[in-house]
Amino acid sequence: MIMQPAFFLPHGAPDLALSDIPAAHFLRELFTDHIMPRGIVIISAHWETSGLQLTTAPKLDTIHDFGGFGRALHALQYPAHSAPWLIDATKAALNFDGFEVKDEPRRGLDHGAWIPLRLSLPDGEIPVVQLSLPWRTSPNDLFQVGRALAALAEQDILVIGSGATVHNLHKIAQEGTPAPKWAVDFDDWLEAVLTAKDWAALYQFNASDAGRISHPTPEHLLPLMVITGICDARPGTFMKNLHRTYSYGSIGMAAWEVSDAV
User: Fold this and answer.
1) Using CA atoms, how far apart are residues 203 and 164, in angstroms rounded to an integer?
2) What's the pTM?
3) What is the pLDDT of residue 2?
4) What torsion, rounded to 10 degrees, do the Cα atoms 119, 258, 245, 252 define?
């Protein structure tokens, strides 16, 4: 039986789609040593709703939900499509654990979803659905969503959380600028917490000065709570760091995997 991992992936600034920075190279090579899934469920920092919603359109439009990056980026498209079996499987896993999910038949993929998918799976051959990030939801609530989604792994469905381990747009600098100490300190703390599977500490990610500066708003770290819930629900798995760099100084591009590999 194929058991898919789960990923927390960075989507960076929108121009990551055309970038040559290390994180873009990492995403382009992601599936060179991972088995292609049968389907993908992705949760992005850029679709917040009242309650859980799920895309149900057969073809998922490429949403250019950003400005100021030039025509080349706005011209990019990602040929994403869904599948009825993937929609049904995702809803069934969530419903089984008591979560209600509303259909969203008009929405496509925001840049937090299509950019990492376009870099890692450019042909768009694998069916995908996007699950929303509920407003004003606690880290523990999202952790429980992850625990429900953990059942999808044995159906060869990959769950991806898309965000940033550090995200402070007020502190951005020229691309290639070294990360400030507070950003490195937060990623160091996060690595220790995830490696130890100390979920209670993770919930308090904004308790320190480094945490508050790294996440003045929480939405870019919240998809990680879903992924850690998957780890908690799957005995024998652990959080494995796959990549760690920075973009524009203050955007953390670290990637994490729920892995059962030694």
Assistant:
1) 16
2) 0.97
3) 73
4) 90
